[in-house]
Amino acid sequence: MALLVRLLALALALALGPAATLAGPAKSPYQLVLQHSRLRGRQHGPNVCAVQKVIGTNRKYFTNCKQWYQRKICGKSTVISYECCPGYEKVPGEKGCPAALPLANLYETLGVVGSTTTQLYTDRTEKLRPEMEGPGSFTIFAPSNEAWASLPAEVLDSLVSNVNIELLNALRYHMVDRRVLTDELKHGMALTSMYQNSNIQIHHYPNGIVTVNCARLLKADHHATNGVVHLIDKVISTVTNNIQQIIEIEDTFETLRAAVAASGLNTLLESDGQFTLLAPTNEAFEKIPTETLNRILGDPEALRDLLNNHILKSAMCAEAIVAGLSMETLEGTTLEVGCSGDMLTINGKAIISNKDVLATNGVIHFIDELLIPDSAKTLSELAAGSDVSTAIDLFGQAGLGTHLSGNERLTLLAPLNSVFEEGAPPIDASTKSLLLNHIVKDQLASKYLYHGQTLDTLGGKKLRVFVYRNSLCIENSCIAAHDKRGRYGTLFTMDRMLTPPVGTVMDVLKGDNRFSMLVAAIQSAGLTETLNREGAYTVFAPTNEAFQALPPGELNKLLGNAKELADILKYHVGEEILVSGGIGTLVRLKSLQGDKLEVSSKNNAVSVNKEPVAESDIMATNGVVYAITSVLQPPANRPQERGDELADSALEIFKQASAFSRVRRVPGPAPVYQRLLERMKH
């Protein structure tokens, strides 16, 4: 039996193929990108890789799927070329790159990969070439010829003027005394170099880019008899200072230095880790209004939030960014980090003036604009330049600006600018009172609001919260955008001006001359007490015009029959509060009469039972009123619907009779009934 089990297992393994029996380690991001480039190049022969070259530059990239279809790197157009994949070469008369490169020592391999300048400088030293040609196992991160040519003249002069110390040390810093292939190059790791055991920082990004001290690997894994060569795009130098130490010695960080000290973040910036500091220069701080800057610098919590908003959770070298990506800061916000040509961008702005200043615990990019998070802003700063700026101007004109710039815990219900397209209301006592009722006495978050909750305003009103399937509303106004939570206040963007309730439904109807006939009808039907008491009603209120449109005989008959009148009026009253922002496409609202009302909304026009609503969202303390210009008829009062109900009942009876006859195995309904059944179906 055991033998049979083993044979079955072996057969299954063979059927599934080698992947099932010899599952290898997961490929690294670099290897996956290289594999994709091979797939794209295979039509040109074996071992051909598709390479994207940025037009007008010498920058080349192995292509991933997204870049292949977009044909862009950092927003710049690319062309596709086809080259031998690393480790292979062409053979005259053969398609593709069928031959593996012959193995040679490290020194000779430098010439093969296009680093002849590194060969030249190796020759100038007395010790290094014999080492590269001799026994051993080494890894060299070899700068390309272009990388050496781009070094500042004074740096290059200092190296070549002292070849057996400065140049030798620089080259040894590019070497590791063992073979290291890309599958071993893990994100955030450090390799010990052959210069004083100094660390080389490795970052291996999800997009397949690998950097060495922020220099990008151009061609990797070129094997040699005594090691491996990786071609990189920069000459790298030793890193000795952590982020905090760099802040201390850079003159352009004077204000940042003081801010870090005041916030206590210097301990973090000295610690082990891999951070990216988007370091604001003195110029960045100078662009901020003095009042705002002094407020933040004097508020430890706001200052800490500000600085944390400039620190990314992982080291991000500029060379790794070939398209936009979202990165989280220590403050918890998300920054859009991208590139445009050679420039890095933050939230779409090219504000980075100096990039890839390497530290032992991360990388620094100098920025010339402060990134102030919402959590460090006042309410007025949250709204500045936004789509609620008109409302903010109104608060200022009404003398309420101090509430928006102080340290009160508040929530501002700010209508969108589009609400005021036909003009803002004049500033008077009534408007000021209304605006005060747009300021809630606590700092709220919309995710914690619940249906039926009441909110106290600075104007003394209580506002109700209504939660619908796709809307979150406060009285007649619904939240139109995500919250902005500031230092002390939260900004809710609202889709209209609030109209706080001023009385019960009966008070609203009595106070509007359009509803005088409805009020008389309600009183005749004995419903006054119902619409005056606490509750939650949606009232579709026929105007006088609606009653007058009824045939005279029908109106008199209706007013003379209290029971029928009460039924019809109850059909106009829904059992819950439904404001227009909560309707969506269609809502079936149960009435006090028992039947359901069909309430719909299209292009901001509300209808009930397909009858247009003249005015929506007249708020009352126990409900909401909609003005309509027709009297709604319950289904039982509609002749067509009564006929439909009878037909449905008869059809159901015949269906049951047919089912019964089949079960009892007796003849079915007589042909006359069968014909009648067919007619009723149609």
UniProtKB/TrEMBL annotation:
Chain's role: Plays a role in cell adhesion. May play a role in cell-collagen interactions.
The species this protein was found in: Oryctolagus cuniculus (Rabbit)
Entry keywords, A to Z: Cell adhesion, Disulfide bond, Extracellular matrix, Gamma-carboxyglutamic acid, Phosphoprotein, Repeat, Secreted, Signal
Subcellular location: Secreted, Extracellular space, Extracellular matrix
Protein origin, superkingdom: Eukaryota
PROSITE patterns: EMI, FAS1
GO biological process: cell adhesion; extracellular matrix organization
Highest classification ranks of the organism: Eukaryota, Metazoa, Chordata, Craniata, Vertebrata
Domain called FAS1: residue spans: 103-236, 240-371, 375-498, 502-632
Protein name from the UniProt record: Transforming growth factor-beta-induced protein ig-h3
PANTHER family per UniProt: PERIOSTIN-RELATED, TRANSFORMING GROWTH FACTOR-BETA-INDUCED PROTEIN IG-H3
Span of domain EMI: 45-99
Record note on quaternary structure: Binds to type I, II, and IV collagens.
Gene Ontology MF term list: cell adhesion molecule binding
InterPro entries noted in UniProt: Adhesion/Biosynth-related, EMI_domain, FAS1_dom_sf, FAS1_domain, TGFBI/POSTN
Annotated signal sequence range: 1-23
Pfam families reported in the protein's UniProt record: Fasciclin
Record flagged with keyword RNA-binding: no
GO CC terms of this entry: extracellular matrix; extracellular space
